[in-house]
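Sequence in, structure out.
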Amino acid sequence: MPQVVIVSPALRDANNGNWQTARRWRQHLSGTFAVRIVKQWPDAQADRDAVMIALHARRSADAITAWSAAHPGRGLAVTLTGTDLYRDLQTDAVAQHSLVLAQVLIVLQECGPQALPDAARVKARVIFQSTTARQPLPKSPQRLRAVMVGHLREEKSPETLFAAARLLAAHPDICIDHIGEALDPTLGEAARVTAAAVPRYRWLGGLPHEATRRRIQRAHLLIHASRMEGGAHVVMEAVASGTPVLASRIDGNVGMLGADYAGYFPWGDADALAALLLRCRDSLHTPDRDALLPTLIAQCRQRAPLFEPAAERSALRDLVHELLGAY
């Protein structure tokens, strides 16, 4: 049975998107292939590996370079994150070199190939991430509950949420929960200050994955305010739970939700986010199918098949067979 090594900059203890992707891909490939996840390569089992899937062009660059030296021109796929596509590839020579070495470049949403240089775009393969579908949990008809999920760091733009919460402080029928560890202590302090000033904003810190998913199921909306994304796992989980998304209009979100999605706001625009939340709150009190919240629910339902596990499993297995065929 051929062995596949997945190189991830983060392992189980980080509980972040890289780890969730690596864990899920191991599950999808296991049975057809022997699969292991490592943070560094080569190691004691390196001589058994037939294919490498590396997460992150820059942070996994040492493993990518070592693989290319050991297996020149074959067996290597590099998965591009949001910081790869929308930051590092513009200026970082190490990340740029990873594109040259890879035979396949995996992007996680349909706008991803547009961010690549022309020479690398022909290597791009869109593989949407997946999750199990869940039924929405009962929601209050009296108040709108929104949740934002993501560790507190600059790329996730939590300041936009803080500002929107303050703008909505006079609206007790809009409640906002915020889940994520304070990777930036300054942002953690800002979350505490916001919670003290706005009773309907709660910063819950980091929660286990299952608890987070249940809060997404209970919410009317997921807020995703990021500055850059490669294809956010939490957006997919919300859509698969029947929970629509209010998202910053960036390529990583448009590539997940579609160009015509009605729930975008300009990145960093707290006023626009607050206005969308008010419109969704108003939707609770009207049977109009053209109201914003029912429209978002319908649009997300149309996108949900993209994130089904069977589609991701098939795409990954086809990819590995293709890489093995180059030997």
